């Protein structure tokens, strides 16, 4: 439930995928980090001001030598515990105003086998660390923060992070760089390697940087100009620069994979080099870069089933712009590839129900959305699709809470009810049979479900009260949720269905859902709360009050 409570009570507005907001949070990280790439050894002191939490995590392999809260030392033997998910937990008795954690250890693949791989590593010639690895203390409640980072590396390394460079000093055989986040962020990501070069261009008053090492200069010059052109097209489609104050494309010298952590886009230089030998290789590399850049406009919760909006829109826009820049033949080639993948797969899960750890994730979040958006584009044209995308972004960018229901509303607004119904069927694998909103709860519910249901949700050693209220208003069920620990009440609950002894509902503001089974003898609901693709056991008992 770590994202649930934060999203319920967030007082700032966020752009979920890239992490930029208008209001600053109180939490601030001050990190002094030394990395020795040859051994994978790090040494770090982390000060966290106004943390808003008492539980933090680090990757397994770290040794915590000192913890202090409000400048008072804490017994590390009691505060630090190892967990089975390859991490360690630091637990304080209460939430202090200031925390200091000193730790060191080796960042080795065996310490976090599920995350360190082709896109996260520490080796003699490359350091690449994202939020997938807890290389700095990550709070249980997650959330936004500002940060200052002082990083010491061997002098031949060039460093790129998702923040602004303040200083770059050579001190003997080490280079010490200092960085400051331009605004509140969700995470800290960095890439460092010897001999990285830099190319620059500006598009729509937005700086674009490209970092590389082995790619030919002519290739990078061409990519730089095409990225600038594609960025301009994205601005034209959305009618906004999105969250992009800067685009920083890094060709990391590693095998494969790509991801975006604002303002960084990290892709594989090896992939680009291999593609140079292939027909349409440059076009494929450009398409991948456009996809990651399109996340500047992502506004759905990337940790929920709504992530198909982020990935599907980015995938389609990369295809759409590729047709204009690389030609219709290349576009048709990709569309045929996607159709073949979808046709030859046994898809059993609806797009809107696909979890992040599902084997159908790639098909349901990338390929199928790109295909149905292609059909909308062909049927309704450039202008109608641009209106859908720009209006959808304008209506969701400030809340940072893009949802399927809002997307369907925009489809109906600019393309009509028939288009909405066809998209609804693709997304849900169900036909619409009436004019009711797909987020509306059942109009009828058994009387035994009416009332107040209470339970406690456990996560990371903490418990949160969970109160579900179901009352009748004008003879219709009206569900809502309270979170007393956070002093939040009357939180919207939608899509409630109570069939026989099974109840399910969604909480849009948290991008979460619940499904439970009723034991009528004890009036107990036994089920699970799902968020960010993870199920958490949750038992709700009917209250007599």
Care to describe what's here?
This protein is an alpha+beta fold. It folds into four domains: 180 residues, tricorn interacting facor f3 domain (Immunoglobulin-like); 86 residues, Zincin-like (2-Layer Sandwich); 122 residues, Neutral Protease, domain 2; 96 residues. The chain has ten helices and 30 strands. The strands form five sheets. A nine-stranded antiparallel sheet has the order 25-24-23-22-30-29-28-27-26, with helices on one face. An eight-stranded mixed sheet has the order 5-4-8-2-1-12-15-14. β9 and β10 form a beta hairpin.
Report helical residue fraction.
25-40%
Number of helix segments? 10
CATH top level of the largest domain?
Mainly Beta
* Rg of Cα set: 24 Å
CATH 2nd-level architecture of the largest domain: Sandwich
How many individual domains?
4
**Structural class of the secondary structure composition?**
alpha+beta
Beta-strand content: 35-45%
The total beta strand count reads 30
**Oligomer class:** single chain
By CATH's scheme, which homologous superfamily of the largest domain applies? tricorn interacting facor f3 domain
Placed side by side, the strands forming the largest sheet appear as: 25-24-23-22-30-29-28-27-26
Query: Average pLDDT value?
Result: 86
- Distance from first to last alpha carbon: 26 Å
The best one-word shape is: globular
**CATH topology annotation of the largest domain:** Immunoglobulin-like
What summary fits the major beta sheet? 9 strands, antiparallel
**Uncertain parts:** 1-24
């Amino acid at each position: 439930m770590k994202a649930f409570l934060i999203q319920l009570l967030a007082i700032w507005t966020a752009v979920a995928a890239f992490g930029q907001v208008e209001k600053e949070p109180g939490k601030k990280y001050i990190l002094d980090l030394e990395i020795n790439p040859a051994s994978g050894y790090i040494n770090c002191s982390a000060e966290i001001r106004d943390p808003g939490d008492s539980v933090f995590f680090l990757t397994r392999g770290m040794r915590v030598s000192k913890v202090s809260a409000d400048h008072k030392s804490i017994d590390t033997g009691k505060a630090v515990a190892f967990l089975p998910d390859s991490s360690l937990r630091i637990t304080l008795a209460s939430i202090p105003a200031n925390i200091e954690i000193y730790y060191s250890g080796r960042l080795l693949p065996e310490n976090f086998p599920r995350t360190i791989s082709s896109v996260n590593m520490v080796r003699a010639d490359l350091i690449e660390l994202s939020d997938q690895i807890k290389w700095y203390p990550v709070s249980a409640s997650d959330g936004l923060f500002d940060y200052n980072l002082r990083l010491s590396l061997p002098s031949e390394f060039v460093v790129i992070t998702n923040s602004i460079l303040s200083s770059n000093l050579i001190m003997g055989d080490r280079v010490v760089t200092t960085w400051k986040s331009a605004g509140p962020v969700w995470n800290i990501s960095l890439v460092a390697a010897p001999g990285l070069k830099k190319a620059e261009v500006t598009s729509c008053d937005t700086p674009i940087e490209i970092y590389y090492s082995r790619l030919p200069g002519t290739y990078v010059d061409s990519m730089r100009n095409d990225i600038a052109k594609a960025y301009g097209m994205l601005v034209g489609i959305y009618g906004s620069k999105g969250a992009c104050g800067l685009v920083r494309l890094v060709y990391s010298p590693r095998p494969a994979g790509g991801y975006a952590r604002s303002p960084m886009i990290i892709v594989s230089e090896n992939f680009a080099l291999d593609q140079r030998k292939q027909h349409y290789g440059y076009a494929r590399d450009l398409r991948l870069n456009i996809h990651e850049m399109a996340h500047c406009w992502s506004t759905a919760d990337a940790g929920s089933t709504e992530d198909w909006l982020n990935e599907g829109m980015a995938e389609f826009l990369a295809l759409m712009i590729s047709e204009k820049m690389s030609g219709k033949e290349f576009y048709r080639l990709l569309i045929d590839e996607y159709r073949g993948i979808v046709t030859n797969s046994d898809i059993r899960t609806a797009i809107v129900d696909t979890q992040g750890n599902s084997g159908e994730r790639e098909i349901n979040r990338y390929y199928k959305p790109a295909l149905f958006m292609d059909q909308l584009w062909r049927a309704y044209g450039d202008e109608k699709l641009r209106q859908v995308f720009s209006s959808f972004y304008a209506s969701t960018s400030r809340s940072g809470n893009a949802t399927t229901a809002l997307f369907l509303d925009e489809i109906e607004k600019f393309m009509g009810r028939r288009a909405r119904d066809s998209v609804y069927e693709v997304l849900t694998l169900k036909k619409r049979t009436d004019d009711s909103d797909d987020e509306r709860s059942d109009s009828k519910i058994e009387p035994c479900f009416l009332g107040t249901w209470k339970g406690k949700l456990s996560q990371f050693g903490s418990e949160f009260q969970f109160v579900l209220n179901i009352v009748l208003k004008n003879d219709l069920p009206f569900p809502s949720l309270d979170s007393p620990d956070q002093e939040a009440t009357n939180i919207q609950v939608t899509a409630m269905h109570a069939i026989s002894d099974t109840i399910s509902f969604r909480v849009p503001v948290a991008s979460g859902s619940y499904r439970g089974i009723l034991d009528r003898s004890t009036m107990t609901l036994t089920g699970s709360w799902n968020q960010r693709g993870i199920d958490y056991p949750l038992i709700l008992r009917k209250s007599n009050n």
